[in-house]
Prior knowledge:
Layout: H1 13-21, E1 39-46, E2 51-53, H2 55-68, E3 72-82, E4 85-94, E5 102-112, E6 118-125, H3 127-132, H4 138-150
Parallel strand pairs: 1-6
Antiparallel strand pairs: 1-2, 3-4, 4-5, 5-6
Amino acid sequence: MNIGIMNYRIESIEQFVELWTSIYSTEGKPDWSHILPYYDENIHFRDSIQEIEGIEEFTAMTERLVERSKDLQFKIVNILMKENLILFDWEMTLSFKKYPNSTMYGASRIKLNNNGKIVDQRDYYDLWGDIFDNMPRFGKRYRKFMRKKFG
Length: 151
């Protein structure tokens, strides 16, 4: 092993929680710079909005989120790690200019490759529902519409 070369591998739940929760500060913008080396160069990412292939596109996505965020807070609620799979529930609170803070509730599935790097990440959440819930009068109408059409 070469001295001075860092081995970026996720090896435990404790390490993962420390890396993940330190992306988001209690005040200010998120910072992914310390966790990006733990992502494989061929990362596949998908959420409710987008699907991304490769570390360059993934890094660009994190930079766009930093640019748009006034304040972001993140909390891991439950987490499970089994072999190369990490599943966790989370709460993310976002600040918007015209509206009160909105908390989004979601879950993520992360797969690690044989080198312990994140090779696949799938985030599940209801973007509009969680945002609309915090808008006076609109949230109730949105939920009523969703129950009528899909419930």
